[in-house]
From TrEMBL:
Protein name, per record: (6-4)DNA photolyase
Residue ranges occupied by any Photolyase/cryptochrome alpha/beta domain in the UniProt entry: 8-149
Sequence segments annotated as region (Disordered): 499-544
Pfam families reported for this sequence: DNA_photolyase, FAD_binding_7
InterPro entries: Crypto/Photolyase_FAD-like_sf (IPR036134), Crypto/Photolyase_N_sf (IPR036155), Cryptochr/Photolyase_FAD-bd (IPR005101), Cryptochrome/DNA_photolyase_1 (IPR002081), DNA_photolyase_N (IPR006050), Rossmann-like_a/b/a_fold (IPR014729)
Organism: Panicum miliaceum (Proso millet)
Any single GO BP term: circadian regulation of gene expression
Catalyzed reaction equations: (6-4) photoproduct (in DNA) = 2 pyrimidine residues (in DNA)
Keywords per UniProt: FAD, Flavoprotein, Nucleotide-binding
Note on how the cofactor is bound: Binds 1 FAD per subunit.
PROSITE patterns: PHR_CRY_ALPHA_BETA
Cellular compartments per GO CC: cytoplasm; nucleus
Molecular function in Gene Ontology: deoxyribodipyrimidine photo-lyase activity; DNA (6-4) photolyase activity; DNA binding; FAD binding
Length: 544
DNA sequence: TCCGGAGTTGAGTAT
DNA sequence: CATACTCAACTCCGG
């Protein structure tokens, strides 16, 4: 390896981790570099409007998240420019991000490539392509884990090769997270020559072709590191609130002033470092006498995030039911009509529909609101596959995160982690206890805004004269309920009971052979690990 | 192998 | 109005 000289060219490739603070990849790239190339590759699949999609946005992301990403990139560029650098925006080659990075590595004679490690399956495949190319070209590669508090592979190793499957066992094994990089820079090495490359400016959503949505309600969350740090400081200023924070006690109907920090989108894109956030919360804790603890506390939420990252990293086929060892096999029903009603906020249950409309417009809703609609779609009312709901959330949430989204759908559908399927959220009474007047519903479903308080959660029970007076005829201006909650939830409980009984039969078939290692019969072959490092880790797991 | 306790976030009712 | 209890009940884990 050549010694670092003034001529050394380093590239920091941004994907998540769209920040300057606590960024080990950027920190490593700048050290000893004569030229620094901060790169982000625009992916048309992520950004290009898809007219065939169910709601405004691209094939991969709703327009709220597209906007959030663009704002984050603009802010990153501005912050880099303040340090004498800039963001080099490239276009993917034939819709392939990895190819664009490889080409730039070669054309700019890069000596060292740094990027934040990403444990999601699609990212692992993309990054392997780039890493293989770099290695073959003699380019040094540095890919630190800095998206999560801990290194998922290390936790799995410490746990004997298998991911801890309960929060408490995760906590017991994790310990304290590493300290963030707290050093602040006054300048970065100059950007090197980019030759013939066309460097793009950060486009606006309008420039990308989303012009027709300008009349829409714009989500109240701006992307970017600057906004992330401002928002975090604002939340942490209220020390009493931080010290008393208990996640399950939050109000899911609060939308003017949400009951949580709404820092999840910033953590998702890495505008905010989870380690820095953790560190700052600890500072607040040190200044108060008493404070809540995991799992309900603020730090507890960051640990939940790491929990799901770790389990997802160590569980083959984590994002599906089939071939997923930790997922209950449940015969979900197919019903496109009911699914579409749920997706589009037309179930006839105002509480459910308001949440789905907030999702489509804002790309964010409170955690308990997500619980409500996820339960309704799956084990509570419609008995539709959690993977269908997962896909909707995955596209529309501005904070959608592969590990956490899948983990929570597994949880809510009682497919894994949580099994008390008799506990069903009521689409009527759950929201009502927080917001008896239905202000949340009135905001997101304007057609119901004049429905009297006593009918707002069940407008189909309002006498026709009242419906007329409220200018909202049920069945015409707003749909009738697609199912009756009483009968539907009863049926769901029954079917869950049957699925559980059948899975007990599968896992304990009245002792076959003690040497038989297979715990559960799989109709779809074996669980070939989607990434080999996990497969190796799993092989070391002890047998009993 | 069996038993008891724990598990971030249910609903309904009583105090 | 916040808290506590009941209801009916799941799996997982550790002893």
């Amino acid at each position: 390896m050549e010694a670092a000289t003034a001529a050394t060219a380093a590239m920091v490739w941004f994907r998540k981790g769209l920040r300057v603070h606590d960024n080990p990849a950027l920190d490593a790239a700048r050290r000893g570099a004569g030229r620094l190339y901060p790169v982000f590759v625009l992916d048309p699949l992520y950004l290009r409007p898809d007219p065939a999609a169910a709601s405004p946005g691209s094939a991969r992301a709703g327009v709220a998240r597209v906007r959030f990403l663009l704002e984050s990139l603009g802010d990153l560029d501005a912050r880099l420019r303040r340090l004498g650098s800039r963001l080099l925006l490239l276009r993917a080659r034939d819709d392939d991000v990895a190819d664009a990075v490889c080409a730039a590595l070669k054309d700019w004679n890069i000596d060292k490539l740094c990027f934040e490690s990403d444990t999601e399956p699609y990212a692992l495949a993309r990054d392997k392509k780039v890493t293989d190319f770099a290695m073959a070209s003699g380019i040094e590669v540095f890919a630190p884990v800095s998206h999560t508090l801990f290194v998922p592979a290390e936790i799995i190793n410490k746990n004997g090769g298998r991911p801890p499957l309960t929060y408490q066992s995760f906590i017991a094994i994790a310990g304290e997270p590493p300290e963030p990089v707290l050093e602040e820079y006054s300048e970065l090495p100059p950007v090197g020559d980019t030759g013939e490359y066309e460097l793009l400016l950060v486009p606006t959503v309008e420039e990308l072709g989303y012009g027709d949505i300008s009349q829409e309600e714009i989500p109240p969350f701006r992307g970017g590191e600057t906004e992330a740090l401002r928002r975090m400081k604002e939340s942490l200023q209220d020390k009493e609130w931080v010290a008393k924070f208990e996640k399950p006690k939050g109000d899911p109907s609060a939308f003017l002033k949400p009951a949580t920090t709404v820092l999840s989108p910033y953590l998702k894109f890495g505008c905010l470092s989870s380690r820095y956030f953790y560190h700052c919360i600890q500072d607040v804790y040190r200044s108060v006498r008493k404070y809540t603890k995991p799992p309900v506390s603020l730090t507890g939420q960051l640990l939940w995030r790491d929990f799901f990252y770790t389990v997802s990293f160590g569980t083959p086929n984590f994002d599906q039911m089939k071939g997923n060892k930790i997922c209950k096999q449940i015969p979900w029903s197919e019903n496109e009509e009911l699914f579409v009603a749920w997706r589009d906020g037309r179930t006839g249950y105002p509480w459910i529909d308001a949440i789905m409309i907030q999702l489509r417009k804002w790309g964010w809703m409170h955690h308990l609101a997500r619980h409500s609609v996820a339960c309704f779609l799956t084990r509570g009312d419609l008995f539709i596959h959690w993977e269908k709901g997962r896909d909707v959330f995955d596209r529309l949430l501005i904070d959608s995160d592969w590990a956490i989204n899948n983990g929570n759908w597994l949880w809510l559908s009682c497919s894994s982690f949580f099994y008390q399927y008799h506990r069903i959220y009521s689409p009527v009474t759950f929201g009502k206890k927080y917001d008896p007047n239905g202000n949340y519903i009135r905001h997101f479903i304007p057609v119901l805004k004049d429905m009297p308080r006593e009918y707002i959660y069940e407008p189909w029970t309002a006498p026709l004269s009242i419906q007329k007076k409220a200018k909202c005829i049920i069945g015409k201006d707003y749909p009738k309920p697609v199912v009756d909650h009483e009968t539907a939830s009863k049926e769901c409980r029954k079917r869950m009971g049957e699925a559980y009984a059948s899975s007990r039969l599968d896992s304990n078939p009245s002792k076959v052979k003690p040497s038989n290692l297979s715990r559960r019969k799989m109709s779809h072959g074996d669980q070939d690990a989607s990434n080999s490092s996990v497969a190796k880790l799993l092989k070391t797991s002890r047998s009993e």
